[in-house]
Fold:
Amino acid sequence: MSEPLLQAVDLECERDARLLFQNLSFSILPGTVTRVEGPNGTGKTTLLRILAGLNDAWSGELLWCGQARHQNRESFLRNTLYIGHRPGIKPLLTPLENLRALMAPRQPVPDQVLLQALAGTGLAGYEHVPCRNLSAGQQRRVALARLLIADEPLWLLDEVFTAIDAAGVQAIEALLQQRAAEGGAVLVTTHHDLDLPGMKRITLGGEVNHER
Amino acid sequence: MWQFFHKLGSPKWFFGIATRFMPWLLAAGLLLLAAGIVWGLGFAPKDYLQGNSYRIIFIHVPTAFIAQSIYIMMASAAVVTLVWRMKLADVFVKAIAPVGLVLTFLSLFTGAVWGKPTWGTWWVWDARLTSMLILLFLYGGAIALDRAIADEKSAARAVAVLLLVGVVNIPIIQYSVEWWNTLHQPSTFKLTEKPSMPAEMWVPLLLSVLGLYLLFGWLACLRMKTEILIREQKTRWVKELVLAGRG
Amino acid sequence: MNAEVRPVIKPATASVGTLAAMLAVFSRDVRVAFRQRQDLLNPLLFFIMVVTLFPLGVSPEVAFLKQSGAGILWVAALLSVLLSLDHLFRHDFDDGTLEQLILQPQPLFLLILAKTAAHWVLTGLPLVLLAPVLGVMVHLDGNSIAILCLTLLIGTPVLSLVGAIGAALTLGLRSAGVLLSLLIIPLYIPVLIFGTGTVAAAAEGAPVAGYVALMGAFLMLAVTLAPFAAAAALRISLSNS
Structure:
């Protein structure tokens, strides 16, 4: 059994005087895909934002590689990739420029690799078209191109399949599985019926929040 | 130490303590303020330059003084909010900000009333008046920001950041306003209390400052209690308290 | 399943330097701004129009303009920076770029410093460059114009830096623009006073080096403190969204 990358102990979050979840404990192990599920408004996105370090209105404990996350913030941030509902794509920039700007503070990547990643998400030929002229699905793909280059061990992906067509969904599913096989850890929220072999689940919105 | 700190952070504990102390604060405050004002307005000697009109300082100075110190108190509480996330600090800031605003306005108003007989005009761009006007803006901004953010905790923390930025700026603002004042009006009549103020003048002044402080303490407790009741309305102790009050 | 396979945890020391990350933030903002050139022009046009209002609304007399010109230009510059501040974080907030910025491993306040620097280069600096033309139009003499430009050169970065705090605090709120002005204008007063005061002192023939040095001190203070406050404010605003 390998050591968990991220561990949540008794997480509790209250939003607008409403309790979203409490006593939520789970571990994210290397080599796993975990799906956060639950009906609308149960705090899936909030949980992901808490895990990513964006939302700090929570109580409980978060451990990164066995140590308190807030004491290892830099290591945590460097080793975690978060792609949110709003993925950070500038409509005025081209896919290549966007990808370059997103990667620049994290790891130096030559343009050739970026272009390959864009081609890998089906954006070949669109590299130099401003993103606002692309469809919603294509814009989303620009953000997901990061997954083809990213070397962060932990991925937190919010609504990763939104606006993606059937072929794209299959490709992403395969990518997530491959990532787990390589030893990465992936946490996703989605409304899409994701069911990968060996996938773990965190269910929100029930009376008892449990880990399976 | 930690236990005390923890207690201090508990709204319920504060509610009890405040209820016990408030009558004393009110009585002592009223007494001192009344003594200071009656003495100052009725018995203190006339000023040889300004005659009787100077007597407004017994109201003007306490309001101005406390209006300024409330901002400092709020900024101190802001540190507590940001560092220790103590609920009571948020409640304190929220409760006293409007009091600070009103006192700042009162000090400006009494300053203007004083200006009329002294300078022959309601408003003079005097360094102190201008600084107080800017303080009024700072209070207004903090209250507006608090009202604009729906989430209570975020509002408290955002206001705390603003207050700290404000408190760093206050000395700079005062310094620059004074410099600006000397640049434009080389020799204004100074509104300051003269250092040679006789005891019959400064003792009543001191009394009214102390009295107003105590009254402010009472008002702060009252407003904090109200705020606590609103915030903790879902807790059992508040429900029990309200039911007991009704029955 | 792959219990024996473990990803490599990268060391906590930066693999991309802070300076490189700051440069990336700066150049992206500049690039985006040049894709939308009209947005760059708007604060400048506003600056010119506000200055135009004074001769029209108060008096076109040379004596009045000579005396008030520096003040008018400073107030107009201040207002146009204020107007542009709403955009500083708003677009980044809307498209999610800001979330990514906060999650970068480099210190957030330095990345914000880079963003603010871009904001100044795109709005403050053009105002400084335009000021001599407007200075001539309000009949300032050459020396006054030079001093005015110097004070604007030191003062407008302070406006951007302090303004960043307000922009971060009001992010995502309704009617953020007006609220931003309410919060920030009181904090702009010292810069305005020393900016115009220095020009006035120069017009009277007084030495101004001390005042300029003082404005430099304001700038240093703003550079060291404002990004911290803005970073704290951004975290609060994003945590709430």
Summary: Residues 72 and 167 of chain B are 7 Å apart (CA to CA). Residues 186-191 of chain B have pLDDT under 50 and may be disordered. Chain B has one domain: 30-186+199-242. DSSP finds eight helices and no strands in chain B.
